[in-house]
Predict the structure.
Amino acid sequence: MARVIEPGAKLALPVDYAGVSMAMTRPIIERGARDLHLICVPTGGLQVDQLIGAGLVATVETSAVSLGEAGGAPRFNQAAKDGTIRLMDATCPAIHAGLMAAQKGSPFLPMRGLIGTDVLTNRKDWRLIDNPFSETDDPIVLVPAIHPDVAVFHAPMADRFGNVWIGRRRELAAMAYASKVTLVTVERVVEENLLADEMSAAGTLPALYVDSIACAPKGAWPYGLWGEYPTDTAELLRYATMARTDEGFLDYMASSLPEPAQ
């Protein structure tokens, strides 16, 4: 699936609790497409850190990057310190607003909460205007649409018709709606049509928005997957310790990546 990821692509990746496709990390690295623009929806973690460490990332658009209980993301922190990646600071609502604008076919979405913040000061692509519908001074921020080239995530299951069950993780749907291509790894493929069952239909992303599916059991590990398995915090801590140095990162990556999606 990683063959569709071209150099310079904008890649949308989900927050750690929403279904990170760690199984796609090795194929993306082996693909070797550089100068990637990572869009974290709305924050990044282990996968983002590993792609940065592999030297594939030029830009990170995010509201945060960390390993949660395991602390800071060492390759991200080092790259930010060295200035080897471009940072586009955002907020969680701003990331979601940009994706929503894209899915609605709008060039932007207005927001108020950014006014007066340092984030707005540092984002020259966000515009502060006067509300044209107000008779008094009423500033508002326009957040431009975010158009990812590729969205990548992991989910519990898909059906043989190409529908994917995402439960209440609506950020995954937002990623798929806004992106040109959506790649999904799943724990399993079921025979029944998920859209035909009233109990699963509301939490199902239709095949219309999914371009490719691969079966990858434990594909989110060492992250957990809701209703399937918990996060392996000890493994995240091990990575956080080893990846503090270039050599430690390379040693970890050579021995600890999960099996790629099939």
About this structure: Residues 2-90+147-157+177-217+233-255 form a domain with the Glutaconate Coenzyme A-transferase fold (CATH 3.40.1080.10). The chain has nine helices and twelve strands. The chain has a mean pLDDT of 96.
